[in-house]
Amino acid sequence: MINQLKDSKKDILNEDNISKIQFDAVFVDSFDQYQQKDYDRILNTEKEKSIKLWAWKNDKANAEFAIICYDNDLDIVSFAISDLTSKTGIIPSDNVKLSFIKEVKAYTGHAGWYANNPKNFMPKGNREYYPEVIYSDAPISICKNSFNLVWLEVSIPKNTNPDIYCGNITVKAQNTDKVVELNFSLEVMDIVMPDTQDYLFDVEYWSHPYNVAYYYNVKPFSDEHLEILKQHMCLYKSLGGHAITASIVEEAWGGQTYGGGNKIHYPSMIKWVKNLDGNWVFDYTDFDKWVQMNIDLGVADKIICYSMMPWNNLIKYYDKHKQKMLKIKAKPARKAKYNELWQPFLTDFISHLDEKGWFDRAYIGFDERHNMDTALDLIYNIKNKDGKVLKISASFNDFKNNAAIFDRLDYASVGLQQIRNNLLDFKSQVELRKSKNQQTTMYTATEHVPNSFTKSIPVESYWSIMFAGSLNATGFLRWAYDAWVENPLEESTHWSFPAGDCFLVYPSSKEDMVRESKLTLRLAKLDEGVRDVNKLYLMQNAGEELDKKIENLFAQIKGDKENSYEFYTISKTNFWGRKAKWLTENGKTEMLKDMKKIKENIYDISKYYIDYLNK
């Protein structure tokens, strides 16, 4: 488990012992994964005391290093970072963030299957600790014969002079007089990265604001909750997030997320109420607070509202006559009854969106649903004050055999394996839909390999984005951003899904004074991929030779077949389980090699682009 700051006082060491306590620090491959069982591997193979980084202006550069403890514990380990200096300028140390990486326990087995696990039994079987959370710069202690990873992130201001900047990191501990120094250089290129709101390739990570309230034990959408959510969603914005998730019914996804002990795990932000006269009224209080907060932060250019086809087709509402919560089922197959229920809501909802000025941002969202015709027909029949109909978003895999539905989706996402099964058709659809101003993204989910689970090595996340870029997709979707389990900082295992599947960020400890969400290593690598794809998209159409270089780079990204990178399968270990798929060591090694080449090519293309601009 992660090395934690010890509460008990250690025996006082004399000066001779202090001088003998040894440790070291070395840079490691930020694409790779290092568990404590890799201690000898780090000792024997990772020797780098310096590293070369590169970035554009208004960009980030990342690196990772390990602090290695030998035969004695290290107490109160801390680090310091210098300014980055060059002949033409300085990048202040305030632009450099160092964070200890926290390990989290995770189940290593099958993928799970919620439908046959209604009582949320936790899976039995092997668990391991994985480096997961880019946590804090607060000093820690490190146990002997172990190591702790540290994440380095440099943010480059827009006005930085293009040059090579040099800096150093010093690492020390309270119970030894030894100091370890690491050096790094950063080449800043003379190209400006667009701001995240202007990305050509963006991300959509489904959010669960109620779960944030459950974790911190605050009232949903209270002032205290909204204050926590501001940092939480600003972090999302910094990753290229544009769309926000909003619930319009209780349990849009069948209660599959952790619910903080509440009977309803993911409530509706819009409360359905049936009055004494039998008419429907709708309370938009939570919805309005959530949407307005995100608009104020500059995030919500898309408000994806789930869903007019919730799992099990159930609508829960408060009946004023019976003074209790009731439920009604509205199956799209029974069109008259379905329309009778949903038409009053849509009419009222559209009027509310018009009143707030949010209509053009709003989408009705669908999650891997079949037989959507009834819902879409109803949406198309109810228009706003300007004669417009609501836009439609869906995770929709049957794009080849159900083109009539796919063509009606303004914003569509298709799963990795379905894309592989119909690769040429998907690429054609991307181009066709772009010509009609329709967006098409890729998503990864349970049973897809490679992936972005706790057990997945970080390069898999980077590959996922680069593969989506090679398809010319407009973005990447992932469920979910923050659907935390009960004690996420201790264990990321879920009762139904691969460990880590449900969240890409972690909360603070409940005891921390500052409540803020923290990146995972896998999310940091998703973000690196997003920035690199945006670089390539920005440099396109600047000349035939440059376009050819970018086309060749994307053609090098393997993944059109599930076995493009070797993987193995773990059979289910519980009666409700699915099989889990993980990269083999050969698969990991090959992907690490391939993505290193891709990074080098992006660097070379960037240099070529600068020469092109300066002609």
Keywords summarizing the entry:
615 residues, alpha/beta, five-stranded antiparallel sheet, 14 helices
Percent helix range: 25-40%
* Residue share in β-strands: 25-35%
How many β strands by DSSP?
A: 28
Count of individual helical segments: 14
- Approximate shape: globular
Q: Work out the radius of gyration.
A: 25 Å
For the largest beta sheet, what order do the strands appear in spatially?
13-24-23-22-21-20-17-14
Q: How confident overall, as mean pLDDT?
A: 94
Structural class: alpha/beta
In the predicted model, the low-confidence regions spanning at least 5 consecutive residues are 4-13
Largest sheet: 8 strands, parallel
Oligomer: single chain
Distance between the termini: 55 Å
